[in-house]
């Protein structure tokens, strides 16, 4: 049954004026990086400049080139630990001081945080928090149990940040529901769906292979469930993404064709050629790789979780992420059914058009307009 579409900020027309300069945070580790670049490209057409403050780890040479390609983005790079990392709080305090110094120097029209804790800083500018994911909801989805007591400090600090933010947004209703349940009610929070531009990811001549993209070591992505089934599938399986865990060790990828980590321009031909894209995720608040695969005309096989149901119900085949038998059965049947593949590809491509870069940009411009209105009222 299709879930009713939520009222989102992207449903409104873009406001007539846009902020001149935004101080935005990001990390180069996960999907937030591609989200920030996509949003920056959309905002450029409205004359918005981005002061991009990065934390978590140094950017790769490829990521620095990506930033250099965006004329409206100025990079401010650091290596401070992020709030979801182990024992981060000394670094979080230092990075907070660094961000406040940047705000004092740059005098942005607003602050856009892609994290939580720094929202509690004494900002002079109005502050938006975007809830891309969180440790507590990750723990529940992946571990199947309530987060342990040792994460209580994280819970308190995230709650404090959410309470201090002038506005909160999330990339799916499912993610926003998690934030409201685990931290604060947030009655005025908004959903703005993520997006990818349509120029890079397009359907090509399909070939008989299965593709998956993501951090292979990440239990949330659950790509290892596909890897374990690869020997028993009729088609070859190709996997792109990092296999080395940040803390050491590596995921087992025997039985699949390893592509390694690929930049978007290198991934695009693989998406274009793949007949089937698989992500049996346990936790995926939005899923940019799923959108990229849908834009490329892949038949989607996804983990049956609330966020992916919200976005792709009726346009994908869903599997129990905890059942290797279900995954193998569904994939074997789909490989043998050309008509169903064609139908799923068509439905995924059509649904992907709902997540346009223009709609995402308009959604954030609407949020920025509200934030600036709040700031104007506070000055009166």
UniProtKB/TrEMBL annotation:
- Do the record's keywords include Transferase? yes
Q: Which Pfam families match?
A: Glyco_trans_1_4 (PF13692), Glyco_transf_4 (PF13439)
The answer to keyword Transferase applying to this record is yes
Q: Kindly give the InterPro entries that the UniProt entry links to this protein.
A: Glyco_trans_4-like_N
Which keywords belong to this entry? Transferase
**Boundaries of every Glycosyltransferase subfamily 4-like N-terminal domain copy:** 29-194
**Which regions form coiled coils?**
none
Protein name per the record: Glycosyltransferase family 4 protein
**Can you name the source organism?**
Geomonas paludis
């Amino acid at each position: 049954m299709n879930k009713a579409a939520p009222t989102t900020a992207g449903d409104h027309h873009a406001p007539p004026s846009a902020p001149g300069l935004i101080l935005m945070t990001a990390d180069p580790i996960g999907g937030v990086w591609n989200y920030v670049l996509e949003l920056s490209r959309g905002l450029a057409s409205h004359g918005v400049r981005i002061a991009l403050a990065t934390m978590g780890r140094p950017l790769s040479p490829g990521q620095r080139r990506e930033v250099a390609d965006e004329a409206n983005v100025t990079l401010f790079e650091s290596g401070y630990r992020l709030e979801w990392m182990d024992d981060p709080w000394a670094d979080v305090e230092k990075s907070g001081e660094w961000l406040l110094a940047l705000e004092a120097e740059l005098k942005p029209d607003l602050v856009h945080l892609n994290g939580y804790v720094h929202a509690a800083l004494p900002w002079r500018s109005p502050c938006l928090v975007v809830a891309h994911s969180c440790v507590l909801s990750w723990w529940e989805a992946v571990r199947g149990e309530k987060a342990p007591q040792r994460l209580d400090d994280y819970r308190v600090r995230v709650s404090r940040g959410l309470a201090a933010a002038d506005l909160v947004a999330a990339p799916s209703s499912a993610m926003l529901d998690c934030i409201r349940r685990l931290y604060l009610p947030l009655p005025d929070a908004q959903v703005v769906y993520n997006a990818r531009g349509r120029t890079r990811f397009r359907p090509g001549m399909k070939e008989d292979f299965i593709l998956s993209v993501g951090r292979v070591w990440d239990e949330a992505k659950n790509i290892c469930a596909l890897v374990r089934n690869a020997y028993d599938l009729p088609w070859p399986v190709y996997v792109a993404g990092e296999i080395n865990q940040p803390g050491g060790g590596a995921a087992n990828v025997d039985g699949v064709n390893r592509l390694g980590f690929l930049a978007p321009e290198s991934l695009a031909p693989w998406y274009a050629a793949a007949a089937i894209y698989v992500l049996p995720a346990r936790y995926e608040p939005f899923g940019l790789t799923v959108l990229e695969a849908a834009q490329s005309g892949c038949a989607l096989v996804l983990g049956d979780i609330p966020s992916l149901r919200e976005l792709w119900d009726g346009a994908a085949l869903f599997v129990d992420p905890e059942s290797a038998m279900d995954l193998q059965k569904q994939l074997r049947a789909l490989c043998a059914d050309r008509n169903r593949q064609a139908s799923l590809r068509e439905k995924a491509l059509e649904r992907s058009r709902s997540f346009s870069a223009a709609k995402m940009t308009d959604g954030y411009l609407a949020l920025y307009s509200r934030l600036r209105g709040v700031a104007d009222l506070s000055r009166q």
